[in-house]
Write a structure and sequence with these properties.
GO terms for molecular function: RNA binding; translation initiation factor activity; translation initiation factor binding. The chain is α+β, with helices and mostly antiparallel strands. Helices cover 20% and strands 35% of the residues.
């Protein structure tokens, strides 16, 4: 009975299984009929590359050479026995683990058990190995051991050098013309770039009496443009990187591929370009900040951007030989063209807050805050010797800002300080209340760098040095009692107050590049108030306004200044106004959705000091010559204008005569169309007019009759 029941169950299960399979086959056949065909046609051409689809993954794909390129050889290490080997390993590991994860180490030994004086290290990636070779080659362990570090793959490369030298492929030279051609303008007109049309159009103008376009292109840049420090290159921003343009026709000189680039900075010598992109960075291959060689387009070095910092993160010295960045308790100074740390180590400064280079000398100024019983201090050091030139101790410091004069003669440190207030019930207990301000003025050119101090009780809104000279100005106070005070540093160490201008609408100071003249500007919230001041005799030359102005820019010569209303700041009344240094309006240029104006910088003059003094001495002679040229130019311009008007009038007369002749020739056609009625004479026939008089009430007057 049990056997029969089991057999029955098996038979039932078998029947259900066959039915289920038949249903599945039916469903599959139905799906095959309903399923569309996703196969490509025979003539389909797949033009999408693997790099476009899987670029991020393919870059991480291991290469056969990775295992070899991740290994380095460290030569000239101490030869030690087994008893000191462990200590040597710890020293080596501590040194090289800074550059990445050390996967494996190997120390060859002699028959007696002593090391052979070299060893092998394997890193987790070739990038880490490359960084280790770059930073530790030449490292001095002690007086007798200076490391020689090389890639393991270099040995094979040098062994397999061919017997016959093969010259490299020479790239064809592309002549873009003279990149300094803008300096050869006969009339010495400066150039400036303008972005307008919501960023759609970019134009280069000549600052002639009537500004004229030298070049204009649509969608030249995606965000904004920037000139190099000496005006040689124009940089444009794109999603995939930066492009540099130059020459008489603004030809493309070089491209730098950096995805998502947002910020750039040039070295003062225009040899190097620094780019920054906030996109995701790679730990093995730093991509956030890249330094490029401008002439070759080669990436010189990449850096990570670990924390938020103000741009530029790297600060260059005056000639581009050094650049530095601030780190945790250190200032890292790098050399060019090696792009390695100066002397293989950073400058250790505990709790350093900020630093800046002198604009003319290899001097770094930095400041550190108060810690425990140690006062805050400002220190000046010389590079590369790292010699301390001056140290200034400061107390009750809240913050410091450093301002170098353009000529490098003076340094001003604006110190925000707390007021000490003693409690009445406890004489020993001190609390801080309010903030006052000090200007610590360092005389860089004098012996032992003496320091002067100027105290300001009111809130300091702005500070600016005269670029050439010994004067400086500051805006202080709070609205509506804002004042501007001018100071002058005397040769014997006395700081003289020249004048205080009270109740001013100003929040920015703009000195002329040649000094003496300054513009006090109340931008944005202060409605564009402009005040032109001659600081030689402290006279107010002009008080005017460019309503809602957002920007003010001096030209490189100090003869003209531009005020502008940018579409990025305000959506109406966009455009720029051109003024001379006295505040006389020269030109108004409204532009729809105007965004940015930048003057093209000029390189330093090739004339020596003696030649410049001679020109200034004989200035009247040169002035007469230029005045004569200006009058001739005006006469030529007037003559050209008259000739143009005569030409236009003559063209109009010819056009009128042609149309009158056509009108007379078509009279018969008009008569035929109007059934013989001459409509040309209707306006001269009195029968075609009728006179009609219309009366309407204008005013009602009431007269009062006196009894």
């Amino acid at each position: 009975r049990g056997v029969n029941m089991a057999a029955g169950r098996l038979d039932t299960d078998s029947r259900k299984s066959r039915e289920s399979e038949s249903h599945v086959e039916d469903d599959a056949s139905e799906n095959e009929e309903e399923m569309p065909n996703f196969s490509d046609s025979d003539d389909f051409a797949d033009d999408v590359t693997d790099d476009e689809l899987l670029g991020d993954l393919l870059r991480k794909k291991p290469k056969p050479s990775d295992s070899v390129d991740s290994v380095i050889i460290v030569d000239c290490i101490p030869e030690v026995g087994k008893d000191r080997l462990e200590k040597l390993k710890n020293v080596i590991k501590k040194l090289f683990s800074k550059f990445g994860n050390v996967v494996n180490t190997y120390y060859p030994v002699n028959e007696d058990g002593n090391t052979k004086g070299y060893m092998f290290l394997e890193f987790s990636s070739p990038q880490h190995a490359h960084e280790a070779v770059k930073m530790t080659n030449g490292y001095k362990l002690d007086k007798q051991h200076v490391f020689k570090v090389n890639h393991f793959s270099d040995f094979e490369k040098y062994v397999n050098i061919p017997e016959e030298w093969e010259p490299p492929d020479i790239k064809p030279y592309q002549d873009v013309g003279n990149v300094r051609s803008f300096l050869q303008n006969k009339d010495c007109y400066d150039q400036f770039s303008v972005i307008y049309g919501e960023g759609e159009k970019t134009a280069i103008f000549l600052n002639s009496p009537e500004p004229s376009k030298a070049e204009e292109r649509a969608r030249w840049t995606e965000t904004y443009v920037r000139w190099s420090p000496q005006g040689t290159y124009l940089a444009t921003f794109h999603q995939k990187g930066i492009a540099l343009w130059g020459g008489p026709k603004f030809s493309q000189i070089m491209r730098f591929s950096h995805q998502g680039v947002q910020l750039i900075d040039f070295s003062p010598c225009e040899k190097y370009l620094v780019t920054f992109s906030p996109m995701q960075d790679s730990h093995e291959d730093p991509q956030a900040i890249i330094i490029w060689d401008i002439l070759s387009g080669v990436k010189k070095r990449g850096f990570h951007c670990e924390s938020r910092s103000t741009w530029p993160i790297f600060k260059w010295n005056h000639d581009g030989d050094y650049f530095a960045r601030i780190g945790e308790d250190a200032i890292s100074i790098y050399e060019t063209p090696s792009f390695g740390l100066m002397e293989k180590k950073s400058l250790k400064v505990t709790a350093v807050r900020d630093f800046s280079w002198s604009p003319t000398d290899n001097i770094i100024a930095y400041w550190v805050p108060e810690m425990s019983n140690t006062p805050a201090r400002v220190t000046l050091i010389e590079i590369p010797s790292r010699t301390e030139l001056c140290v200034r101790n400061l107390f009750n410091v809240a913050d410091c800002k450093m301002h170098w004069q353009k000529s490098g003669d003076y340094l001003c440190v604006k110190v925000d300080r707390y007021n000490k207030v003693k409690k009445a019930d406890d004489k020993d207990q001190v609390k801080y209340g309010g903030v006052y301000y000090n200007f610590e003025l360092f005389r860089i050119r004098e012996k032992q760098i003496p320091v002067d101090k100027v105290e300001e009780k009111e809130t300091v809104l702005a500070f600016a040095w005269e670029p050439v000279g010994s004067k400086f100005a500051c805006i202080h106070g709070e609205a509506p009692r804002i004042s501007v005070t001018f100071y002058n540093i005397q040769p014997r160490g006395r700081v003289e107050t020249l004048k205080t201008l009270e109740k001013r609408s100003a929040n920015h100071l703009f000195w002329s590049p040649n000094g003496q003249f300054i513009v006090l500007a109340g931008l944005r919230s202060m409605n564009g108030v402009l005040e032109f001041v001659d600081t030689q005799d402290m006279t107010i030359m002009t008080q005017t306004e460019h309503f809602m102005a957002t920007d003010v820019e001096w030209d490189p010569t100090g003869r003209y200044v531009v005020s502008a209303v940018s579409w990025w700041g305000h959506k109406v009344d966009n455009g720029y106004w051109m003024w001379n240094f006295q505040g006389i309006l020269q030109h108004k240029q409204p532009l729809e959705k105007f965004c940015q104006l930048q003057w093209r910088p000029r390189p330093p003059s090739l004339l020596g000091e003696n030649r410049v003094k001679e020109i200034k001495k004989n200035f009247k002679t040169w002035a007469q010559k230029f005045e004569m040229e200006d009058s001739m130019r005006k006469m030529t311009a007037s003559k050209d204008m008259l000739d143009k008007r005569r030409t236009l009038m003559e063209e109009y007369r010819q056009y009128r005569e042609t149309k009158e002749q056509e009108f007379h020739e078509m009279k018969e056609i008009r008569l035929e169309l109007h059934s013989g009625v001459d409509t040309d004479e209707l306006c001269y026939q009195e029968d075609n007019f009728s006179e009609e008089t219309i009366e309407f009430l204008v005013k009602v007057e009431e007269k009062v009759v006196e009894e």
